[in-house]
Sequence to fold (356 residues):
Amino acid sequence: MQTTSYSHPLICFSCRNISANGKNKYKVKFCAPFTSQWDRKCEFNGRPQIYNSPGPIKPKRLFVLHNTDDSHPSASTVADEMNTNHAPNGASPAFLSNWSPPRYLWRGLSVLILAGQVIVKTLKGKIHWRNTLQQLERVGPRSVGVCLLTSAFVGMAFTIQFVREFTRLGLNRSVGGVLALAFSRELSPVVTAIVVAGRIGSAFAAELGTMQVSEQTDTLRVLGSDPVDYLVTPRVIATCIALPLLTLLCFTLGMASSAILADGVYGVSINIILDSAQRALRSWDIISAMIKSQVFGAIISIVSCAWGVTTLGGAKGVGESTTSAVVISLVGIFIADFALSCCFFQGAGDQLKNCI
Fold:
């Protein structure tokens, strides 16, 4: 049983000539017999024919696909992209038309924009308190164990290096003051921030990155909720509140572990260490530690959230954003620590004179 088939012509344009009147002429060759009304219009006679065209014809790439039903070829065309080399001489590509800013550049810009949005919304009172309390519980109580454990061992390692040298010099009464100043000004804020950046910052970046690639943030916008109000601001506020408290706990435990180690191993009395620490410490040392902790908390949360909401590329992009968020947070912590130390502690110090 034969099936009725309609074959379509393959039209090949070649030998374009420009006539005197400015019109284009094309030699047209029909590569397949006509069975439609084109036979009557074009008066097909099997030979190449010349037709006038008022303008250029967009080039097509032609493919011949064999039909197994009726053994007649059928043509399908795919538009060929215009080559820039065929552009008119007067049209030149725009300067820096193909340039795009590096990813780290617009991510850094997103950090500044996100920080500004969080500040504005906090001042306006647009705070989702339920999410803030949930994040505060997560950043604070759930991070106490690892922070205290890290601070205790860092304090004991620091004590070993100081006590053995001060004992040889006969400066046992200065050990407590040196430890107190070192813990309050540098060790406790920085060590606590590093632990929180590794634990909480990575979690923030992974969560928001997963929500971004799965379009959950777009769903929040459709439902009328601002992702900054609902997701970012609670995390920033919770981190800025919890980190100073964690720093204070780490300072207390670090001093306690140092005093116990000095008394048990090197024979320096706990009372001597605590008295020396009390003489050397001032209220500004504790206040500066709290300020540093708040700044570190803001850096960790904003950088992690910014890297999360700018995640691209699915699961691989989430992993890359998480890793880079922690690294950038640590770099920001060290830079901010240097800047704040230069601002808070200038000139020659005299606090150790009281504990000699």
